[in-house]
UniProtKB/TrEMBL annotation:
Stored InterPro entries: Caspase-like_dom_sf (IPR029030), Caspase-related_regulators (IPR052039), MALT1_Ig (IPR041077), MALT1_IG-like_dom_sf (IPR033540), Pept_C14_caspase (IPR011600), Pept_C14_p20 (IPR001309)
PANTHER family the record matches: MUCOSA ASSOCIATED LYMPHOID TISSUE LYMPHOMA TRANSLOCATION PROTEIN 1/PARACASPASE, MUCOSA-ASSOCIATED LYMPHOID TISSUE LYMPHOMA TRANSLOCATION PROTEIN 1
Protein's organism: Ameca splendens
Domain Caspase family p20: 1-57
Protein name in the entry: Mucosa-associated lymphoid tissue lymphoma translocation protein 1
Length: 323
């Protein structure tokens, strides 16, 4: 979670339109890929970062969704090379895959997908670990980065060819005593030109398409505007919103005005769609941390009640009320 959050902020500094999603099922992952592909067109730089459980069989990398059965097979997972093939059909200018997952072989899966890729000189794979090896995190409970992102985030904004950036990350990781001899970054590339994540955006003849895709991205990421609600009793309440990830929303309520004859007042958000599976014990808490909000806690206003809504991709009916 911390890795995705940090990379999201860095990529946005580079003017990428970022979609950050947590804890997806297979169908949700496939839908996310479909939406991602809709944002691509000729010349666009496409980057996919995946942190989670995965495996590699016969040169193909598989991302394992949260609802995969045990044991799981390729039919239950998403093949990274299949996504690359679809990206190539969009005539992208650069395809970067940063796979922060294990690459152990799945002994329960003997399938060999026949994926025929185009020969293009614009593909870069950055594997967090070598083939048939594991990828490590620095802490299983604390809010720290995994080993790969710990070093990647220090280099990502460098104005260098993307393979040069990854080479330097590999060198940095190689000096890290905690995982020396256990985890080493592996880079695979067919990149023949100097392509950097810092390259300026050049709309060219696709200005209308760029605008349309930007609008499409914005529709899914524009937050509701903060609002003031006036109640018959004389209380005035501010309702605010913040995004932790593309599918995680934070709602906070603050008492702006309270009648003189009222000794106590709180504003609770209630009646959410059952699709969200919200735990009432983690709603309307006095500190962000009590609801699971750690990454945004320092930037939220104080003296509010906070509610964290995750898995927004499951939402079917919009339902929100303030008593």
């Amino acid at each position: 979670m911390v890795d995705v959050y940090d990379l999201t902020n860095l990529l946005r500094q580079l003017n990428f339109k970022v979609v950050s999603l947590l804890d997806l099922t297979e169908s949700e992952m496939r839908n996310a890929v479909d939406e991602f592909l809709l944002l691509l067109h000729k010349g666009v730089y496409g980057l996919l970062y995946y942190a989670g459980h995965g495996y590699e069989n016969y040169g193909n990398s598989f991302m394992v969704p949260v609802d995969a059965p045990n044991p799981y097979h390729s039919a239950n997972c998403l093949c990274v090379q299949s996504i690359l093939k679809l990206m190539q059909e969009k005539e992208t200018g650069l395809n970067v895959f940063l796979l922060d997952m294990c690459r152990k072989r799945n002994i329960h899966d003997e399938s060999t997908p026949n994926i025929v890729l185009r020969v293009t000189a614009n593909i870069v794979f950055g594997y967090a670990t070598c083939q048939d090896a594991e990828a490590f995190e620095l802490s299983s409970t604390g809010f720290t980065n995994g080993v790969f992102v710990k070093f990647l985030k220090k280099r990502l904004l460098d104005d260098e060819k993307i393979t040069v950036v990854l080479d330097r990350v590999a060198e940095d990781m190689g000096q890290f005593d905690a995982t020396k001899g256990k985890q080493a970054l592996e880079i695979r590339s067919s990149l023949s030109e100097r392509r950097a994540l810092t390259d300026p955006i050049l709309p060219g003849d696709s200005a209308d398409l760029v605008h349309a895709h930007s609008h499409q991205w914005a529709k899914a990421h524009e937050l509701p505007e903060s609002m003031c609600l006036n109640f018959d009793c004389g209380a005035q309440i501010k309702l605010g919103f913040a995004a932790e990830f593309s599918n995680v929303l934070v709602i906070y309520t603050h008492i702006i005005k309270m009648p003189e004859d009222m000794s106590f007042c709180q504003a609770h958000v209630t009646d959410f769609s059952l699709d969200l599976d919200v735990d009432p014990k983690e709603m309307n808490r006095e500190t962000p941390e009590e609801t699971g909000i750690y990454l945004l806690s320092s930037s939220l206003p104080q003296h509010c009640l906070y509610t964290r809504l995750s898995s927004l991709q499951k939402l079917r009916v919009k339902s929100l009320s303030v008593p």
